[in-house]
Amino acid sequence: MSERIVAIVPAWNEEGAIGGVVDEITAFDPAIEIVVVDDASSDATADVAEAHGATVLRLLFNVGIGGAVQTGFRYARDGGYGIAVRLDGDGQHDASELDKLLAPVHAREADLVIGSRFVDPGGSYRPPFARRLGIRVFARTVSLLGGQRVTDTTSGFVALSRHGIELFAEEYPHDYPEVEATLVALRSGLRLEQVQVDMRERRAGTSSITFVRSLYYIVKVMLALFVASLRRYPRVETAA
Fold first, then answer.
1. Domain ranges within the chain, ordered by starting residue
2. Most buried among 130, 132, 213, 234, by the most CB within 10 A?
3. CB-based burial of residue 103 (10 Å sphere; 0-12 exposed, 13-18 middle, 19+ buried)?
4. What stretches of the chain adopt beta strand conformation (E)?
5. Planar angle of CA 74, 192, 66, nearest 5 degrees
6. How many CB atoms lie within 10 A of CB 181?
7. What is the pairing mode between strands 112-116 and 192-196?
8. Do the strands 192-196 and 83-86 form a parallel or antiparallel pair, or are they unpaired?
9. pLDDT by 10s per residue, the chain, length 240
10. With contact defined as beta carbons under 8 Å apart, do 188 and 197 qualify?
């Protein structure tokens, strides 16, 4: 019997993109339950997601991306799902590439698979300078602190085993979480793999990350990584 899979899609004011995201996941595999975590949007994100067939968790207050994602992991844990995938609600992640992320989890070879834009040096993704600088700094820092080379710590396109679901349901950073979450996973003993993926331009809306915010983000995340490196995390028994 195959394991039940849930797709976790955090979304905030993504009414222009969320319907297409839900449709793409359904086209990839209609058996995947799609859970859109609506982070107190002021537009019709939740209604659009429901109209396209997703289960919607409507948060009463805006808790930020980390809180929204952890809400999804707790839903997956409490619902008994064996595998979870996470995609952003802005349409930048291509659901047709989910096979790449799911294969190592299905094979019991990994507990966290990151869809990385930089496994292949010839990849097409070319971020702005400030973002590129931050990505490189974070990747090198997490690699050093986590004891494993990581190429893309800011990707929100991931697949997790049951071990990963249970860990992140309890231990998931709430402020710019992806970078610190990768370190938490490594220090907790999750088996991590990376696969090359492409990233599209967002379908609607605008990014909240400006040049100034990118610099602020770098400083803040580096401090968070330093604090995380001093913490003890529960070790996960990952034997199949």
1. 5-230
2. 130
3. middle
4. 5-11, 33-38, 55-58, 83-86, 112-116, 158-160, 192-196
5. 35
6. 25
7. parallel
8. unpaired
9. 468 999 999 999 999 999 999 999 999 999 999 999 999 999 999 999 999 999 999 999 999 999 999 999 999 999 999 999 999 999 999 999 999 999 999 999 999 999 999 887 766 666 666 667 778 888 999 999 899 999 998 899 999 999 999 999 999 988 768 888 999 999 999 999 999 998 876 555 455 555 556 667 777 777 777 777 777 777 776 655
10. no
Q: How far apart are CA 186 and CA 110, in angstroms?
A: 12
**Do residues 195 and 12 touch, judged by C-beta distance below 8 A?**
no
Handedness of CA 195, 30, 78, 109 (dihedral sign): negative
Residue 175: count other Cβ atoms within 10 Å of its Cβ: 13
Would you call 163 exposed, middle or buried from its count of C-beta atoms within 10 A (0-12, 13-18, 19+)? buried
Q: Which of 34, 32, 35 is nearest to 5 (CA)?
A: 32
Who's near 207: CB < 8 A, 6+ residues apart? none
b/e for 207-235, b at 16 or more Cβ within 10 A? eebeeeebeebbeebeebbeebeeeebee
CATH number for the domain whose boundaries are 5-230:
3.90.550.10
In the numeric block, the tokens 């909240």 are attached to 208
Instruction: Provide the token pair at 72.
Output: 């999804």
